[in-house]
Amino acid sequence: MKIQSLLRELVDRGGSDLYVTTNSPPLVRADGVSRPVADRNLGPEDTEALANAMMNDAERAAFAEQREMNLGIEYDGIGRFRINIHRQRDHVGIVARHVKTEIPTLDQLRLPDVFKEIVMQKRGLILVTGATGSGKTTSLAAMLNHRNQHSPGHIVTVEDPIEFIHPNQKCIFTQREVGTDTLSFSHALKNALRQAPDVILIGEIRDREAMEAAITFADTGHLCLGTLHSSNAYQTLHRVMNFFPGERLEEIYLQLSMCLRGVISQRLVPSTDGKRVAAVEILRDTPWVKDLIKSGQVDKVKDGMQKGSGGCQTFDQDLLRLFSEGLISKEEALANSDYPNNLRLCMQTAGLLNKAAPEPAAEAAANSATETSADSDTATPQPESADSSSGSKSESEQPAPQPIESPPIEQWGLEAPISEDPELKVAANQ
Q1: I need a surface site. Which of 19, 218, 270, 345 has the fewest CB within 10 A?
Q2: How many helices (H) and strands (E) are present in the chain, helices listed first?
Q3: Which of 6, 7, 88 is CA-nearest to residue 44?
Q4: In this protein, which residues make up the domain named Bacterial type II secretion system protein E (predicted)?
């Protein structure tokens, strides 16, 4: 059994991840479900041979010492993959994620126009946050691609590993991979300013040193983008502060209030057409937000976001929009909400709970020949309400919201991972 054959099977099945572990057949995760791609269990010698086939001598030596190895590998005619090799129960395990090489546009991902506006800023700090598998890397790639198409400059990225390869268009790209092009994030970031960048991307802000570098880049007139693992924009601010000791918080609050341009948090939510769509929370650098951060009152930021001032929005507000447009079901909206009871009340206040559930796109198309609507050929007429005899129409008589096709899951190149470990470790129960 060759690793290339397994990776080709992953691609052919349209899967996102390949799991290789002992005492189990190789599994491919597609559409959120893991299925075997071989008829026998792998032994310890099988998994070790597959892992060794992807590493050179230096990487094998490093893996023997560190028991972890992260790789970015591309096979001609198959595709590009992000590989994590590890040990579990004293045997070798592998998780391979298929990385799409075609960079999607912000429009294809159906992301708000604020993404286009914020990435064209001349200077400042932009943080894109979310759980593992929420599409942060894909969104950042689309943002940089937008800037590449519309503004000249030099963009330096430090990634582990490189996932999307950016061609030079209006911008010149310097893409550095940790372990291949530079020894570490720290080493690369210390030398980044000497490369005369206009934009700097930090693939993942993991520690205080990286966070401090990001703030310094923004303070010195550069646009710096980075990712963090946090569940929403409000918690991102606390995560940033937790990098620093208490005696430095006043200094960091001041710096952040001056350089932060925005925090974008996102979640991928199953949509009514069987794919996934991004729900987005946005915190912008309004004067009110700046004052709260400067004074250390970050606990009050959430209240301002709920008012929607200055382009801010919460997850619940976006989930309500997605539900009202028929993109997601009520159940998915509530399951992905930070405050489901409040969201349910908003749905009820807006009259959305009285409407029929969105009809799947395929079924709606099949029924279009017999169903008519003033707004859409595929809308399902609603039953008359009790007061219809009076000539008035209730909300329940209006056409049901129709699903808007969300971007294919392949464009995101991501599936919800088995583990929450950002390094793609397999689940603890394997």
Answers
A1: 345
A2: 16, 13
A3: 88
A4: 193-207
Number of CB atoms found within 10 A of residue 173's CB = 18
Q: Is residue 155 part of a domain?
A: yes
Rounded average pLDDT over 55-72: 93
Give the residue from 99, 128, 156 where a domain finishes. Answer: 99
- Please report whether residue 88 resides in a domain: yes
What is the pLDDT at residue 381? 39
- Same domain for 92 and 118, yes or no, is no
In this predicted model, what pLDDT tens digit does every residue of 148-177 receive, in sequence order?
999 999 999 999 888 899 999 999 999 999
91 phi and psi angles, rounded to 5 deg: -125, 165
Q: In a 3-state reduction of DSSP, which class is residue 105?
A: coil
CATH of the domain at 55: 3.30.450.90
Same domain for 188 and 268, yes or no, is yes
- State which residues form the domain around 34: 3-99
Phi and psi angles of residue 123, each rounded to the nearest 5 degrees, phi first: -150, 165
The conformational region for residue 308 under phi > 0 = left, psi -120 to 50 = alpha, else beta, is: left
Q: Which long-range contacts (CB under 8 A, 24 or more apart) does 285-294 make?
A: 285/124, 285/260, 285/261, 286/310, 286/311, 286/312, 290/257, 290/258, 290/260, 291/257, 293/237, 293/253, 293/256, 293/257, 293/260, 294/253, 294/254, 294/257
CATH code for the domain of 267? 3.40.50.300
Are 164 and 229 found together in one domain?
Answer: yes
Residue 384 lies in a domain: no
Among 321, 341, 361, the domain boundary falls at: 341
Say what the pLDDT of residue 303 is.
Answer: 81
**Residue 32 token pair:** 């959120």
Q: Mind listing the pLDDT tens digit for each residue in 252-273? A: 999 999 999 999 999 999 999 8
Q: Is residue 366 part of a domain?
A: no
Distance CA 175, CA 108 (A): 24
Given a cut of 80, is residue 356 above it in pLDDT?
A: no
When the pLDDT of each residue in the chain is averaged and rounded to a whole number, the result is 84
Confidence band (pLDDT; 50, 70, 90) for 359? low
pLDDT digits (tens, 9 = 90+) for 232-242: 998 999 999 99
Residues 96-144 pLDDT 10s: 999 877 899 999 999 999 999 999 999 999 999 999 878 899 999 999 9
Answer yes or no: do 29 and 121 share one domain: no
Dist. CA 20–CA 51, nearest whole Å: 9
